[in-house]
């Protein structure tokens, strides 16, 4: 485990045995680990918590024992599957606080105790804990038994002196808190109140709403298609906003991973030259099939590809030199933001004219983050050179160049 520049390791569906090596934590650049369906045993090494760039951890279908290791430092972890093992014990608190979770599978183990109801444990579609008969509590949709809480025994009569001391201490604390509250109230009246800001959360949307918005995903509303999905024009019933709905083709290999990558990439980035994501839908259709879609702000002038290489040479579809310079500047501004101004640097991996969209004012917006990669920040040039061994991603074969001249 000395190949520190390794970013992805897939050893699934083999017959590897024995414990997982402790020095797996030395692979600090790993983004994905898949060791599912082997014959590993022993405990899951806590050193995995040192792989700070980790997005996906798949260890299902083995014979791991013991508790879930401490992974609280994996702030980019969005897919964790530990199902079909022999794990035991209670749920560690850090699982509730990890901010990037998209799916957590802990089914078919021997976990016990009360299940939390916050964080990923509050999302029924992002959680699987079936096959753990000693679990209780959790949200209503999990249908787990209620947790039994033993009633505290009646307190024995305390000596009079001890009760007096407790009353005096409690009174002193109450008086101190009251005086502190008065001081804070007086100070707040003297200072001007700051303007409160409201966080704009992505609205929830269902499969049925998207079906109605796009006219049943009709051909009349068809905009285009890509490697992992098809894009339709839609009008949302709530507010009448005109949007672009990208429906993922989940039969296509890599579509689900593309959906998760795009959600992760667009979760915290905001820039005038990036396509604005309005919301996402991860649900089932009316036949019970998995359904995933992303809803974007509609770019009325389509992709840069259609303007650079129109199917018909029409004068109104030609770009003048000033528009070409502005579009090139917009794209460069977006890429500079992704590489240098994000909290975690992000590489688009598929920049091409088809993924540059133009709005009413011919302002360019970079879109399609299905192949994007979140990268840890590096301290030295040697670190950067080691990570440059990432495999080539994006369009395979010939891709039309983004020629603005």
| β-sheet strand percentage | 15-25%
Number of discrete domains: 2
Count of helical regions: 7
**Order of SSEs:** EEEEEEEEHEEEEHHEEEHEEHHEEEEH
CATH topology of the largest domain: Transferase(Phosphotransferase), domain 1
In angstroms, what is the radius of gyration? Answer: 27 Å
Overall strand count: 21
Which structural category fits the helices and strands? Answer: alpha/beta
Return the CATH architecture of the largest domain: Orthogonal Bundle
Strand arrangement, major sheet: 1-3-5-7-9-11
Global shape: globular
Mean pLDDT across the residues is 79
First-residue to last-residue Cα separation: 48 Å
Summarize the structure in words.
It is built from seven helices and 21 strands. By secondary structure, it is of the alpha/beta class. It has two domains: 8-142, Leucine-rich repeat, LRR (right-handed beta-alpha superhelix) (Alpha-Beta Horseshoe), CATH 3.80.10.10; 207-387, Orthogonal Bundle (Transferase(Phosphotransferase), domain 1). A hairpin with a 3-residue loop joins strand 13 and strand 14. It is globular, with a radius of gyration of 27 Å. The protein starts with 7 loop residues before the first strand and ends in an 18-residue tail after the last helix.
């Amino acid at each position: 485990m000395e190949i520190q520049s390794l970013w992805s390791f897939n050893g699934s569906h083999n017959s590897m045995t024995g414990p997982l090596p402790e020095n797996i934590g030395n692979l600090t650049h790993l983004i994905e680990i898949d060791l599912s369906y082997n014959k590993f045993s022993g405990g899951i090494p806590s050193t995995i918590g040192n792989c700070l760039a980790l997005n996906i951890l798949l260890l299902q279908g083995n014979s791991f024992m013991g508790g879930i290791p401490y992974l609280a430092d994996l702030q980019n972890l969005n897919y964790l599957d530990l199902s079909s093992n022999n794990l035991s014990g209670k749920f560690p608190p850090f699982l509730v606080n990890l901010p990037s979770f998209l799916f957590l599978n802990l089914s078919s183990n021997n976990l016990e105790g009360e299940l939390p109801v916050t964080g990923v444990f509050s999302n029924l579609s992002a959680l699987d804990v079936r096959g753990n008969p000693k679990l209780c509590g959790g949200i209503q949709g999990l249908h787990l038994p209620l947790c039994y809480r033993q009633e505290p025994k009646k307190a024995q009569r305390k000596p009079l002196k001890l009760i007096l001391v407790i009353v005096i201490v409690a009174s002193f604390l109450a008086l101190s808190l009251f005086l502190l509250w008065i001081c804070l109230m007086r100070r707040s009246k003297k200072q001007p109140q700051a303007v409160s800001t409201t966080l704009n959360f992505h609205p929830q949307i269902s499969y049925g709403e998207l079906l109605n918005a796009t006219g049943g995903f009709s051909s009349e509303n068809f905009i285009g298609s890509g490697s992992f999905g098809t894009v339709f024009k839609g009008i949302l019933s709530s507010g009448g906003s005109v949007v672009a709905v990208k429906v993922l083709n989940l039969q296509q290999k890599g579509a689900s991973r593309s959906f998760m990558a795009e959600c992760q990439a667009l979760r915290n980035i905001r820039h005038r030259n990036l396509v604005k994501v309005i919301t996402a839908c991860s649900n089932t259709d009316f036949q019970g099939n998995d359904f995933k879609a992303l809803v974007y702000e509609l770019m009325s002038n389509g992709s840069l590809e259609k303007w650079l290489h129109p199917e018909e040479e029409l004068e109104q579809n030609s770009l003048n030199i000033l528009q070409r310079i502005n579009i090139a500047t917009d794209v460069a501004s977006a890429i500079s933001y992704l590489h240098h101004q994000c909290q975690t640097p992000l590489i688009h991996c598929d920049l091409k004219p088809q993924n540059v969209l133009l709005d009413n004012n011919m302002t360019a917006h970079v879109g399609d983050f299905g192949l994007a990669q979140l990268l840890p920040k590096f301290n030295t040039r040697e670190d950067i050179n080691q990570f440059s061994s990432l495999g080539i991603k994006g369009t395979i074969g010939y891709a039309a160049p983004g020629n603005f001249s």
